[in-house]
């Protein structure tokens, strides 16, 4: 990582500070370390390590090619001694979670240190395993291949970090596809991954675990809220009051399946949009309304809407987490995108490759969610089922060590 890249990373966390100022701070930080070392002082970064300057003696060096000898004068070398806490953190084994959904396969690598979970690396790939699920009820041959290829890439990542402990969960597509068992067996045979197909109730439980973790990071306390995760094959909705789940529902309503059921052709006219909204509204009619303080959204569709609302050129979870999407902006976005063909949708700033044809079904579901609960905005939480699965694995891992 370069100093510029470090300043870029810091800008995600400290958005109130100008990027130029952060670059100056990073430059100044290393300049101070350099100047102190020149003075012969040691520089200690508590819990990280110690920098010191060591003087090496001059020596005679012989060139092996011509046997000529030379004198190499004395030099100064910077030495770094790793701190105990940092060393312990590095030596803590990595763990991994895999969220295998209808649209996206995601991987999270992390570890637990001093009672805190560290989410160190995330990867995602729009596999669309649920291609054909809405009409034929199976994982199509092409989706089958894409899914296995993605799992092979994830296996390489686990090998790179020498990860032995992982948890791979399958959601709606694995619950519905007639040939899901065949895919699971093939995945075990070709990649070594054992996939656990979880129930809608378990899906909500893991998602909520991640969401609550994410809420701790935000500078606000929310006790009464509804969580929504619109996936490719279904939508998981739960009502939380004072940390207790009052109810949860899995609705047969997903962005990929919706696109296939209606055989959507872009652009979408007003009649198609109205038809979609009526269908979504009917599906949501069984969901209790209650009076939540907030609607908290998570998952791939939610992140996509946040990226489009913020017009991000790349996926930056630090900027998305805690972002508020208003009903007014969502309506404007739907109106704008519905006039575009697929090629134009791909070029919209903030669009994620592989989601251009399902962005509108997903956005419409969230719009109807806001209508259903009579809310004017929703809060984006970048922590969900993927992180919740890793947190669950960390708990199981710690219990196993006792």
UniProtKB/TrEMBL annotation:
PANTHER family documented for this protein: EXOPOLYPHOSPHATASE, RETROGRADE REGULATION PROTEIN 2
Domain Ppx/GppA phosphatase N-terminal: 118-394
TM annotation in the entry: none
Entry GO MF terms: DNA binding; pyrophosphatase activity; structural constituent of chromatin
Lineage of origin: Bacteria, Pseudomonadati, Thermodesulfobacteriota, Thermodesulfobacteria, Thermodesulfobacteriales
Keywords for the protein's UniProt record, in alphabetical order: DNA-binding
Family matches, as Gene3D superfamilies: 3.30.420.40, Exopolyphosphatase. Domain 2, IHF-like DNA-binding proteins
SMART domains tied to this protein: BHL (SM00411)
Species in which this protein is naturally found: Thermodesulfobacterium geofontis (strain OPF15)
Protein name listed in UniProt: Ppx/GppA phosphatase
Domain of life (superkingdom): Bacteria
Similarity comment: family membership: Belongs to the bacterial histone-like protein family.
Keyword DNA-binding: yes
């Amino acid at each position: 990582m370069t100093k510029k890249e470090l300043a870029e990373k810091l800008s995600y966390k400290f958005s109130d500070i100008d990027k130029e100022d952060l670059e100056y701070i990073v430059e100044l930080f290393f300049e101070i370390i350099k100047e102190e070392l020149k003075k012969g002082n040691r520089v200690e970064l508590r819990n990280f390590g110690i920098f010191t300057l060591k003087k090496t003696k001059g020596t005679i060096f012989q060139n092996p090619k011509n046997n000529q000898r030379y004198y190499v004068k004395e030099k100064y070398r910077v030495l770094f001694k790793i701190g105990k806490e940092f060393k312990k953190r590095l030596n803590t084994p990595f763990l991994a979670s895999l969220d295998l959904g209808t649209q996206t396969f995601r991987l999270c690598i992390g570890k637990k240190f001093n009672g805190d979970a560290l989410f160190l690396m995330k990867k995602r790939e729009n596999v669309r395993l649920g291609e054909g699920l809405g009409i034929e009820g199976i994982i199509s041959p092409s989706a089958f291949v894409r899914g296995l290829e993605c799992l092979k890439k994830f296996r390489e990542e686990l090998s790179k970090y020498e990860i032995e402990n992982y948890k791979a969960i399958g959601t709606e597509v694995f619950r519905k596809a007639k040939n899901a068992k065949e895919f699971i067996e093939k995945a075990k045979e070709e990649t070594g991954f054992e996939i656990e197909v979880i129930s809608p109730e378990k899906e909500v439980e893991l998602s909520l675990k991640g969401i609550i973790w994410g809420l701790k990071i935000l500078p606000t306390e929310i006790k009464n809220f509804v969580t929504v995760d619109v996936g490719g094959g279904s939508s998981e909705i739960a009502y939380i009051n004072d940390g207790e789940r009052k109810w949860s529902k899995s609705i047969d309503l997903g962005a990929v399946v919706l696109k296939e059921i209606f055989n959507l052709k872009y652009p979408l006219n007003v009649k198609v949009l109205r038809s979609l909204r009526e269908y979504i509204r009917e599906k949501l009619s069984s969901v209790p309304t209650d009076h939540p303080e907030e609607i908290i959204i998570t998952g791939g569709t939610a992140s996509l809407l946040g990226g489009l609302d913020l017009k991000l050129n790349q996926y930056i979870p630090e900027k998305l987490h805690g972002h508020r999407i208003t009903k007014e902006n969502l309506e404007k976005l739907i109106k704008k995108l519905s006039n575009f063909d697929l090629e134009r949708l791909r070029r919209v700033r903030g669009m994620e490759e592989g989601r251009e044809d399902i962005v509108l079904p997903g956005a419409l579901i969230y719009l109807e969610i806001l209508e259903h609960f009579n809310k004017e905005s929703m809060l984006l939480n970048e922590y969900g089922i993927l992180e919740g699965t890793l947190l669950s694995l960390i708990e199981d891992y710690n219990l196993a060590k006792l």
